[in-house]
Structure formats: C-alpha cells, structure tokens
Amino acid sequence: MDQIAEIRRRYFISNENISEIAKSLKLSRPTVRKALQTETEPVYQRRIQPTPKLGVFKAQLTDWLDQDAKRPKRQRRTAQRLFECLQVEGYQGSYGPVQRFVKNWKQQASHRPSTTKTFVPLTFPAGETGQFDWSHEYVILGGVPQTIKVAHFRLAYSRRMFLAAYPRETQEMVLDAHTRAFTHFGGAPKRIIYDNLKTVVDAIFVGKERQFNRRFLTLANHYLFEPVACTPASGWEKGQVENQVGNVREWLFTPTPRFKDFAELNAWLAYRCEELAVRKHPELAERTIADCFAEEKTLLIPIKAHFDGYVEKTLRVSSTCLIKVNHNRYSVPAKWANRIISARITADQLRIVAENQIVAKHSRCYGRNQLICNPWHYLPVLEKKPGALRHGAPFQQWDLPAPIRVVRDRILKQDKGDRAFVELLLMARALGETGLETLEVACDLTLQTGVIAAPIVLNEMRRLSEAARPKILQHIASSIPTLKTVPKADCSRYDNLRRVRHDH
Known about the structure:
Layout: H1 2-12, H2 18-25, H3 29-36, H4 58-69, H5 79-89, H6 95-110, E1 129-141, E2 144-155, E3 161-166, H7 171-185, E4 191-194, E5 201-204, E6 210-212, H8 214-223, E7 226-229, H9 239-252, E8 258-259, H10 262-276, H11 289-297, E9 311-316, E10 322-325, E11 328-331, E12 340-345, E13 349-354, E14 357-363, E15 371-372, H12 379-384, H13 388-391, H14 393-396, H15 402-412, H16 417-430, H17 435-449, H18 454-465, H19 474-478, H20 492-503
Parallel strand pairs: 1-4, 1-8, 4-7, 11-15
Antiparallel strand pairs: 1-2, 2-3, 5-6, 9-12, 10-11, 12-13, 13-14
C-alpha cells in the first residue's frame, strides 16, 4: 500500500509520466497503471488453494486426524509428524499444503458439536467413593522456602477432605497418607479413584484394566477398598479432588505459610480440614459438609487394625557398618557388618531388620549425602580398636551430657585413656536402658570429688547400680521362735557354776 501511494503522488502531484515512474521504481507500466486506479488496499484472496499432489492423500490425512482427536493431547501428531508419515506413504509434495490442510481441519473441528468437552452430572452414594490426588505447594519450613507434596483425599458424597504434606511423592508416602486419612475419617470408602500414579499402577492395559503395585494392593486388601484408575488424561473422572487442589492452594497456601517442621504443618492441615467442613454442601445447600459426613461416616468400612506402611529393601551392610538408602548412609550394629539385612522404609522412620528382629531404628533423613550414625552401634569395634574413639566419625558429633563430656576429655588426656573411657561405655551398655543416666550421675559425683579417674567412675557406677538389700518381711519376723516361759533372774545359779568348776 505504501508503494501505491508513492506512485499516485508522483503521477498526480509531481506530474511524472508512467514510464518515468516504472523506470525509477523498477516496475512494469501495467502495474503502475493498475496502481493509479487503486484507492484502497488491494486484497488478494484465493478461494481454493490447488493441492494437486496432496489430493490422493487427503482421505488418509483426514483419517489420521480423526484418530488423533480421540487420543490424549500429548499423544497427538503435529503437522510436521503427519507430513513425515505421508512421505512414507509416497507423498511427493511439500510441507506447506499439509500444514494448511491440518490448520483448516482443526478450525472446522472446533465448530463441530463435540462430546469430548461435555459431561454427565455424577452423584455418589454415601460411603461408596473417594478420590485421591497429589499437588505441589510452596511453604517455609524452619525458615527455609521449600516445595512440598500434598496428598489430597475427598469423600465424594459428603465432600469431606483430608490433607497430608510430605517432602516427596514416593510409595511409602502414599501408604502413610492413606493410613492417616482413614484414621482421620474413621473408616475407608468402598472404592477410591486415582490417576495412573507410578507408585500405584505398574502397567496400563486396554480400557480400565490395570496392574496395580503389589505393596499398594496389600494396603487395599488390609482396608478392604477397591482401587480404580481413571482413563489417562481424563481428570474429570475425579473432578472433585481436581477442583479441591486449586481451592486448597487459594485457601491455605496463599500467601506462603510458615511452619517449624512437617509435624506442625500436618497438625495445622488436619485442623483446617475440620474448620472447612462447616461450610455449606455444594449440592445440599440446607446442610453442611460436616452434617453429610456424620451420615457418611457410619457407612465407611471400619478400621480393625493399623497398617504398617513400609517399603522393604534388601541391602548389604558395608565393612564400616553402614547401609545406603535414598542417597544417605545409616549405621547398623557392628554385629551385622558385611551381612544381608532388610531396610523397612516408612514416611518418617527407617527400621533395620535381621533374622526377623528389629536391630536398629533411625529417623528418616530427606537430605543428600548425610551420615546418620548411632555411636552405640560401634561399641564392639571400640572394644578392639579404642583408638578410633578420638577420630571416629560416629563419635565426633555425639551429643553426650555435659558431665560425661568433661570426664571424657580429662580421661583421654591420661595414659591409655582411650581404653579406660571405652570400659566406662561398656559398663553403661551392660546396664541397659538406664546405663547412660547412671554414667552421667557417676561422672557428676566424680567431678565433685575433684579426682578424675576411670576406676573412680566405675566404682560409682557399681555402687549406683548394685541391687538394694531386701527388706525383712513382717510375716518372716513373726515366725521366729520365742520362749514361752521367761526364766527368772537368779544369781545363785552363777555361784553354783563357779563352785562346780572350782571342785574340779
């Protein structure tokens, strides 16, 4: 349009002829004459774009587009991918006609009556259906901003919800979340609808058929509910919990809340679930969610026993008495070094099992490359290698009571102090659960004397731990024989005895 205006100005204003304009602008004279007759912007519009090479392939391309429309969005082929598929079929044309055909097909499809975006209203009987989903939220824990995972449960009839927060979305977290939710609800619904979570579903087959994880099926068998996996990319099949995710983010996590740790966060979430239950029911406007839940609670499957939601792994203990679980190392009693054990991992604990007995416990650590040690696990090693007490990693950060630390530092400066302090630890272990407390009191008493030596501490420990003498029972005292006739005092008897001896 700018060039047309230039031509018209030069012809009508500057009085240049057509030949001069055509020569200076490098245009043909017919083009200049056409521009002089044009007062509005010319519009070129081709009603039908000829596609001679694509013509025989249009039916095939239309069939592919119809098939892709029924697939999840992420599984649909792009125009470029369809072009490549047509080339395999023998198409010799360029990409442009294929791109235009796909664009026109999608524009026409958007105006057709569609059943993929229409839904049927659903109603659920009380106690029958629950829905589960995960979301990620942002919180500040212990002063550190973190991204956490929140497990969402929703009872479809009463709309009662339950939330539990975790650092990750692993299988033991899923098991723990179900146990918490059923405890909170006071029972389990007859069926629960899920996405196709990797922690729940191992394989997806045709239709609704799924292969569920064996450990998850153990959970379902324990609580007697039926797990149901929805169709891939069909979130509307559990629309209630999908909507709950967005609502909870607005109600509870905006602005970003602050908590000391996960325990405080989960306690707050349980409390807020109780508070939100006083809202009106979205369908039964004359009743609250709490009223409907009171009705539904009686129809839930009762909980008869607690489910131990652990995931078990078989591991070999290293020569340093350590096992590695989720990028962290945990100590194991020295007895099991270089042997096979089982690690039972829960949401908040790690239990080490050997020969069907729990031989050690640790609180779960969610960092990376952390060393979590119990110094008592290495005591048998210290018995043979007391020198490791000074520089052994398990003993560097050992949080001992103050009297024990003072006595330890003093004894380690003495000759053979390593072995002497190890003997104190062995004595404490022999006393069982009260051993460390006894050692603390013995060290405190020793410090009061002003003479710090291992034999004195040992003597104090033996004195504190020796069994008390039994008291004389009343019934035993009453059974001691007594004289029935008390003899009278007669000094003449003594004189008789002296006389008899003198005669002899």
